[in-house]
Amino acid sequence: MTDRLLVLVRHGQSDWNLKNLFTGWRDIDLTEKGVAEAREAGRKLKAQGIKFDVAFTSALKRAQRTLDLMLAELDQTKIPVFKDQALNERDYGDLVGLNKDDARKKWGEEQVHIWRRSYDVAPPGGESLRDTAARVLPYYIREILPRVLRGERVLVSAHGNSLRALVMVLDKHTPDSITKLNLDTGVPMIYRLNADSTVASKLDLAA
């Protein structure tokens, strides 16, 4: 029985998560809490006894550092790591750097919620979740999925929205149901896939 294991982890808390700012492609580092979350994610995966063959992450250091910290906890720092901006957080455009509460005061609670959670409405100058999926999913299908289907155990450290785009497909969310999904920082999601790439099982390692 081939394992066909795929583990997805949203990076630990970043400095701008803490400050409640829209981050997008801005290259912000982890907070001390984010470092602790990444290490804890690594310990949880170690407790599962998983030996990874390869890892993928974005071009942004908060995801890369989360991956490094997890691999250190796993004693698996020698595995190949692929970095690509296809896995970057979605671009929030004109909202980048703004406090989310200030944005709500300027544009209204409902409009900001639509920009943050909807599937196909982009903030000014930025990407919608659909736009994000348009770069995440081809990369997943081309680079990640074939490895999983060959039986490699794959770890992906990325971002709230790049992973929401992927989870939308894996968990068969609709454009409506995906609006209710928020991924917590530093929580591993362990997928085992069937030979046809559908999900056989999912384990969420939330605290």
How does this model look, in words?
By secondary structure, the protein is an alpha/beta fold. The protein has one domain: 3-Layer(aba) Sandwich (Rossmann fold), CATH 3.40.50.1240. It is built from seven helices and six strands; from the N terminus they run βααβαβαααβαββ. The protein has helices at residues 15-18, 32-47, 61-74, 100-107, 109-117, 129-149, 160-170, and strands spanning 5-10, 54-57, 81-83, 154-158, 189-193, 199-204. Strands 3-2-4-1-5-6 form a six-stranded mixed sheet. Strand 2 (54-57), helix 3 (61-74) and strand 3 (81-83) form a beta-alpha-beta unit. Helix 2 crosses helix 3 (61-74), helix 4 (100-107) packs across helix 5 and helix 6 crosses helix 7 (160-170). The longest helix has 21 residues, at 129-149. The mean pLDDT is 95.
Instruction: Enumerate how many helices there are, as a single number.
Output: 7
Number of E-type strands:
6
CATH fold topology: Rossmann fold
Gyration radius from CA atoms, angstroms: 16 Å
Which helices and strands occur, and which strands form pairs?
Blueprint: E1 5-10, H1 15-18, H2 32-47, E2 54-57, H3 61-74, E3 81-83, H4 100-107, H5 109-117, H6 129-149, E4 154-158, H7 160-170, E5 189-193, E6 199-204
Parallel strand pairs: 1-4, 2-3, 2-4
Antiparallel strand pairs: 1-5, 5-6
Q: What labels would you give this structure?
A:
alpha/beta, 6-stranded mixed sheet, Rossmann fold, 207 residues, single chain, 7 helices, 40% helix
Brief characterization of the structure:
By secondary structure, this protein is α/β, with parallel strands linked by helices.
